């Protein structure tokens, strides 16, 4: 085959390829050109090779250009390749520009890649939102605290916040705001001398909490804290005193029982000692006949002395028996 035919064949293949590429991206090129953001067909083709949707980039460029923003194709393509949502970023930049909020593409892209909704952040910065404290999803309806007089108060607060764009990356979320506001409410009520002071002036809680700078290090700026509702709860002080009194009573009863047990033990020891002494007396009395017999043998005791001793003993026993019967006679 002559070289001329080979060259013609190669040119035809190239021409056909170029024709296919042009026809594939012609609509996007016309759309971009008509919108004032001309993007060459080779550029669109190279986007396809980099696994980037040319249609998404063209639409984002058109959207930003019509809003008066100049965002380069390379920036949009890089953010899309990084896994970002370029439409969300572009819409956030347009909203920020219309609201005169200083927001750069790099900053918006960083916020989007950090997992934050940059468009919602801009909207909240323009139109502040209200956060309930405590959250309804938390399972609690009120923030409970006890004043110095022991009365429990149950409060509900509403916090109006505005997004701080500069602190959105790395700043704490609204859960931190809710936790800090709840802590401030508890501290304010707990420092009040009487619950009546809080009921008369609920705004004292708001002023005290606002003065603590609770939005430091968060992605929000607290505009106001309003006490939506405050109710009187239980008398915690009285309950604590009652429980303390019951505990003291149980301690006193335990100590009394301990003293009673010690007294019983001492009584039992005394009875044992008495029995021991009686045993010694019986033992001593058992030796008397032996002593008398020994005295007879040695001649130290005569028969008349023995009879006199027996008479004395009998007389003593009689007197004892009379003494025992005497109270009965008196009763008669």
Main sheet makeup: 4 strands, antiparallel
Instruction: Report the end-to-end length measured between terminal Cα atoms.
Output: 166 Å
Rg is: 52 Å
Strand composition percent: 5-15%
Task: Write down the secondary-structure element order.
Answer: HHHHHHHEEEHHHEHHH
- Enumerate how many helices there are, as a single number: 13
- The average pLDDT score comes to 80
Residues in helices, as a percent range: 55-70%
Number of domains: 3
Number of strands: 4
> Helix/strand/pairing class, anyone?
alpha+beta
Net shape: elongated
Q: Enumerate the spans where pLDDT stays under 50 for 5 or more consecutive residues.
A: 328-332
What is the secondary structure topology, with strand pairs?
Elements: H1 3-34, H2 41-49, H3 54-66, H4 73-81, H5 86-98, H6 105-113, H7 118-126, E1 129-133, E2 143-146, E3 151-163, H8 174-191, H9 195-200, H10 203-210, E4 220-235, H11 236-286, H12 288-298, H13 303-331
Antiparallel strand pairs: 1-3, 2-3, 3-4
Helix pairs in contact: 3-5, 5-6, 5-7, 8-10
